[in-house]
């Protein structure tokens, strides 16, 4: 049987030749992403924004009447509702900000949710209620805080480990690549105003995990080659390492992609945002491993000496004794 | 690396099969079957986002605990001073600023008072619960210590959790989860419950029942102005009671609390045709109630529930039987709710709902079904790709992947963990990690062959060289997973749990199991060339 080879046997693509333009691109992406996050803001779901959110499926329609719903719910007088598609065109989530005094009164918030649901049911028969959630402002604030803390600690923690296992340059390079991945994912969510919920935090964590995997595989090969080819100039050595692991990178990314695509296309609507984020992250993470994590090593000044045991005093004595110095 | 003695093989298979066996009940349930009772049945719980149901996060108002504690201490101090021989007279008692202070009538009593109070300052476990100090020679000040307050809140939360559990059990819902979270919170999850209104009503009621004497000397104008006479408190009448909208002044001390009940039932008073709740005191409570009613025959008392007066009947005669009837403002439903709440005990502290989520079971079912179909298609595509690329080694990798999923499920079932939607993201990442490990190994074997190594050496080197990166990658993810579990909230933790367990299973299946199979095949066939 002839086996499939996705990548020809001996590739020699000069990835790092374009490192400076790509680095500039990455910086632009990071800055642009943060600019989008700061100016447009993230479209927080009920987890992070607090308030009342109901999810409805319009079972007898192809598409939910988003505009009409916005008007209808807005007429209740609780401020402008956020009405958006949720994973499929006939599923919507409707978030109503809660007036402050309501937040103090237990039960009042759900009452608003029920009001929204019964009103829509009257107007559009055949609507299925999928969920009704209340998150108080206090809890939402804690969720935001916990999410930031968990993300930051996870990134720092893994960077520390890589520092210990490799060298500090590798740790710093990996951290920068992860920062890039998280920033760009946040940027995508800000630009397209996709709903940003706790689930998306889980997705970002999966992206971090995947990108890290990629980075470590490339780093491992760089470490191996640094020991093997001590005289090779660093850019050339990095290119060699990326090329040697290219078949693996392509194969792994492709397998994950074929696993994710069905989830994206046929999976439950409630998973759509999560899977979309992971799929986007797959590309972002692969890119950052090759074009950020690797070239960072050049700029941070890794040398082949990093992995060669230093000559100890005893070694020097021995050399002296043999008259080699 | 390819050496597998028999004992090792047996061990690996036993380990694998035990884990796979643990996954069977969950899989069986997922196909809609009912796992027979009596057989061991470790199962993966489905989170509410998958199974449907209600999730409530309750927060206790811990300031209430402190206030309650202060009041109890005041009563205890008054009693202790009164019972001292000879009696120690005190006055100007104040509970302002979270501390209890009072004046001794005679400064000469100070050492005696201190001697009596000192033992009361000490709590259990050698924790000092109150600080005692004397100011201006004859004013004593009792300040709660931080440790004491913490203990009290902790005790209150523990019994509150128990009360919540009892109340939910009375509702007869299946398998609720009730866990304390942090210092002052309780998480309640009830699978399958789609309308949590009744539940919330039940939990929203503190069910603190009090019987206090009405202060008959209070001036109505003062009550209306909200000015309580010294030693009294003003309570409003409950909505729906006979005097709704009015208030009544009651004596602050000397009443009894209805937390020592042995039973409570809702019913209808045959004479007035009103909905009522009948309660029975335990022995101690019965005695106290008998004493109170005997000493105050002809006087009016107030039945107060959660700070609202239900009614103000008169003790016509001493009530010695240890039971009483509460009436006023009830509907059949609210009488029944109150009976349940009283039976399960009063909440030592009021709880408020600060997060509430309800997911319809239909959606959950839909999610699972679509998720399974998508995963099936995805798996088939992955298998096809792996086998097309790596041939025999791809088959081993596929079988390993299959075991990976089963073992992961099995361990999750064994640990009784919960699978949530974000957990599925963890699942995807885990499978990705397992695939990646196999890809790394197989690519490395290819490479080693290309460099001209012989079959055995190439395979051996492939595993050895690849495992370094595999371990590094998985350990880093493990660190991330643990940090997430420790610092993340709800859904993020669901993700972390799957991730952490999955890392172990994917390394085990991708590295160890495939190596065992490959080595078995190499030994049996001794091929001179391999197609990889």
Automatic annotation (TrEMBL), chain A:
Residues 128-301 form the Protein export membrane protein SecD/SecF C-terminal domain. It is found in: Cell membrane. It is a multi-pass membrane protein. InterPro entries: SecD/SecF_arch_bac (IPR022813), SecD/SecF_bac (IPR022645), SecD/SecF_CS (IPR022646), SecD_SecF_C (IPR048634), SecD_SecF_C_bact (IPR055344), SecF_bac (IPR005665). The chain crosses the membrane at residues 20-38, 147-164, 171-192, 198-219, 240-265, 271-294. Keywords: Cell membrane, Membrane, Protein transport, Translocation, Transmembrane, Transmembrane helix, Transport. Belongs to the SecD/SecF family. SecF subfamily. Forms a complex with SecD. Part of the essential Sec protein translocation apparatus which comprises SecA, SecYEG and auxiliary proteins SecDF-YajC and YidC. HAMAP family: SecF_B. Part of the Sec protein translocase complex. Interacts with the SecYEG preprotein conducting channel. SecDF uses the proton motive force (PMF) to complete protein translocation after the ATP-dependent function of SecA. This is Protein-export membrane protein SecF. It comes from Erythrobacter rubeus.
Automatic annotation (TrEMBL), chain B:
Residues 242-349 form the SecDF P1 head subdomain domain. It holds the Pfam family SecD_1st. The chain crosses the membrane at residues 371-388, 395-415, 421-441, 469-488, 494-518. Residues 353-514 form the Protein export membrane protein SecD/SecF C-terminal domain. Gene3D superfamilies: 3.30.1360.200, 3.30.70.3400. Its main location: membrane. Keywords: Cell membrane, Membrane, Protein transport, Translocation, Transmembrane, Transmembrane helix, Transport. It is a multi-pass membrane protein. It is found in: Cell membrane. It comes from the Bacteria. Belongs to the SecD/SecF family. SecD subfamily. Part of the Sec protein translocase complex. Interacts with the SecYEG preprotein conducting channel. SecDF uses the proton motive force (PMF) to complete protein translocation after the ATP-dependent function of SecA. Forms a complex with SecF. Part of the essential Sec protein translocation apparatus which comprises SecA, SecYEG and auxiliary proteins SecDF-YajC and YidC. This is Protein translocase subunit SecD. The lineage of its organism: Bacteria, Pseudomonadati, Pseudomonadota, Alphaproteobacteria, Sphingomonadales. The gene is secD.
